[in-house]
Each structure stands twice: as C-alpha cells, then as structure tokens.
C-alpha cells in the first residue's frame, strides 16, 4: 500500500473506544517503513530548493502549496530550482487537490499507550472534519528534517507535533521557517509562535502528591521522565514543592531517572526498591513507568498497594490493563488530539482565505483518578 493510500485509510472515522493499538500499527507501517522513491535515492529537499533558489524555505513551501502571495520573480526562481534539482513534487496536482485538507502528524513518542490514545483522537476528528491524516516517524535531528519534508511533499497543509517533538527546538524551528500551520500538544511551555493544547502538569502532579500525603505517606520515591520534555520538569518540581511544603526531606536516593518508557521504569524501580529501606510509595511521571514499578514489585513478592503504593500520570490504556489498576492523573490525550486537529484546521482555513490567525494556547482539564494501586501508609 502506497503512502497516500495509507494516509487516506487512516483518515476514516474510528470508534473512540476502538483498537488504538491497531491504529498504532498502521501508523508505524506508514511512517516507519514506506518511503518515496526519490527519498530513498537521496533526492533534494525543500531546504535544498530554497538554497538553490536563494529564497526562504517558507517561500518554497508557499509555491508548492499554490499560495498566490509569492511574487512572480520568486515563484520562477523556485520552479527553476525544482527543475534543476529534479525535486519530485507535482505542483499542479498539489494545487488541484487544495480543497482536501491534509493533516500531518510528526511523531517519535516512545510510549505506545500515549501515541495510541493520541491517534484515536486525531483520526476521529479528521474523519468528522473530512480531512486526511498523514503520518511520519522520526528520531534524530537529521530524520526530523526528512520527515517534515516528506509530510510537505505528501501535501500536508498543517502539522501536529505531540511529545517529545513539541519541545524539540530544532523541529519547531524548521516548522517556523516553513511557515506551515502547526500545533504543539502536551508541551508545558508552549511557544508564542505556535498554537498549543496542554494541561497544567504542575498542578496535576501537585494534586497527586496531595493525595499521597493525605494517605499518610511521608517516604515517597519519584521517577522522572525524559529531561528534554518540559512536563518532566514541572511534575518533578511539584513533587519537590509538595514534600517541602509538608516539612519532608527528599534524599537523593529517592529520585530515579526515567525516560517515559517501560524499560526505563524497570531500571528506575529496581534502583528505588533495591535500597536497604524502601519508600512506602512511588510516584512515576507516567503510566508506562508506573506499570514497570508494579512489575518489579511483583517480582520482589511485594503486594501493591499493601506493601507499596504506586501511582502514575496520563491515564493511558495501560493504567487499566495492569493489576492492580493504577491511580493516576487523567490527561485527556484523545480529546487533546481532537482539539489540536480542530485548531490546525481552523488555522489552515484562515490561511487559505487570506485572513490573519492568532495562535491559541488551549488549557484542558485534568482529573485525579483513584484506583486500586494506592492505599494508606501503615
């Protein structure tokens, strides 16, 4: 199945309670394995065309997207560079299908649970809005540029940027250079140059800490997330502030570094639970790592929550597939994805009609969800 065909299949409406993992498998097939022929051959990129033409990448993007605001002189320079570099983009076909809005999704999230919930929301909103969803996976700086270029080549009118790329200075800079409508999702510090959808990560983590302290826990371990992701910093700061506010110290050995992945959670849990005296509770920065803590605890014949209270953050599907089910902070990931798509479509339509668009930062509500993994300290 070709890239464009796969993108259209993904754009069909889905049941919000359906198989998010199946959607994730589709995303990986489309974004991770299928490549256009000229990319495999090391063909030119938008940035190559911009350098050759002596214009900005934004100008090249506008020409490719049929934007009439580009001067005749610059348009000719871009078209000449496209021809000389053999840049494979069918400008006529792109202009002809301008009525069909295409939403690009640039992702590299290591958490399958987060990405699965995000895809359900994005697919649902695209399906109801009549838009197509195009997906591209990337890892490092070099692959970010190539993935963005592929999204533009495939006709993306705007791009969604979920974590951790929502905090990638390089990725955000590239999108700003292109001038393409973009929405960051789940960043704790949104850029004024881009619309964003998020929750208050600090207050969410503070709410969880108040819950643990109310249960009588005073010896609490904490697992940090990816240090490059801004919510990590706010969730950790809330932990520190809550402990200090309760007059409690936080020994260095009670804090372990994770990366928001299940595997990193296993390592962090072994570090925290392998000490001579164990904490009575562990607060992990996301559900994947919290699930790993439960697995390690079971392996050590510890009962959760009788011997160890465990809680997470996000309320992804894994929170209700582990035993016991996780107490967590519900981040409405599916609804956040839907709102991000709606904001992106609004921006694209304003741009197409020649109207100014003010970037919007939308704050979504969070909820403390108490389940069986937490109980009072003895």
Automatic annotation (TrEMBL):
GO terms for molecular function: DNA-binding transcription factor activity; transcription cis-regulatory region binding. Residues 44-98 form the HTH lacI-type domain. The keyword Transcription regulation applies. Keywords: DNA-binding, Transcription, Transcription regulation. The keyword Transcription applies. This is Substrate-binding domain-containing protein. It comes from Massilia cellulosiltytica. The lineage of its organism: Bacteria, Pseudomonadati, Pseudomonadota, Betaproteobacteria, Burkholderiales.
């Amino acid at each position: 199945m070709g890239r464009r065909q796969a993108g259209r299949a993904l754009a069909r409406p889905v049941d919000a309670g359906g198989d998010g993992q199946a959607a994730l498998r589709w995303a990986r097939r489309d974004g991770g394995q299928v490549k256009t022929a000229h990319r495999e051959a090391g063909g030119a990129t938008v940035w190559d065309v911009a350098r050759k033409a002596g214009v900005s990448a934004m100008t090249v993007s506008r020409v490719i997207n049929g934007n009439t605001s580009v001067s005749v002189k610059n348009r000719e320079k871009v078209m000449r560079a496209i021809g000389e570099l053999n840049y494979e983009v069918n400008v006529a076909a792109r202009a002809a299908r301008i009525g069909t809005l295409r939403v690009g999704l640039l992702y590299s999230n290591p958490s399958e649970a987060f990405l699965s919930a995000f895809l359900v929301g994005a697919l649902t909103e695209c399906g109801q809005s009549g838009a197509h969803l195009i997906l591209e996976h990337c890892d490092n700086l070099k692959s970010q540029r190539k993935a963005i270029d592929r999204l533009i080549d495939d006709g993306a009118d705007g791009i969604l940027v979920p974590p951790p790329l929502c905090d990638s200075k390089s990725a955000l800079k590239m999108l700003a250079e292109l001038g393409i409508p973009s929405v960051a999702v789940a960043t704790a510090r949104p850029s004024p140059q881009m619309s964003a959808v998020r929750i208050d990560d600090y207050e969410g983590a503070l709410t969880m800490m108040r819950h643990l302290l109310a249960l009588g826990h005073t010896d609490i371990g904490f697992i940090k997330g990816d240090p490059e992701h801004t919510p990590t910093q706010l969730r950790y700061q809330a932990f520190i502030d809550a402990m200090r506010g309760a007059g409690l110290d936080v020994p260095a050995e009670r804090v372990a570094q994770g990366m928001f992945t299940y595997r990193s959670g296993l390592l962090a849990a072994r570090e925290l639970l392998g000490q001579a005296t164990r904490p009575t509770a562990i607060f992990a920065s996301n559900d994947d790592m919290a699930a790993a803590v439960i697995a390690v605890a079971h392996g050590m014949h510890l009962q959760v929550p009788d011997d160890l209270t465990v809680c997470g953050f996000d309320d992804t599907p894994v929170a209700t597939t582990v035993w016991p089910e996780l107490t967590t902070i519900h981040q409405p990931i599916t609804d956040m994805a839907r709102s991000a798509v709606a904001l992106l479509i609004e921006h694209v339509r304003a741009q197409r009609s020649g109207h100014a668009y003010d970037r919007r930062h939308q704050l979504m509500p969070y909820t403390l969800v108490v389940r069986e993994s937490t109980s009072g300290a003895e």
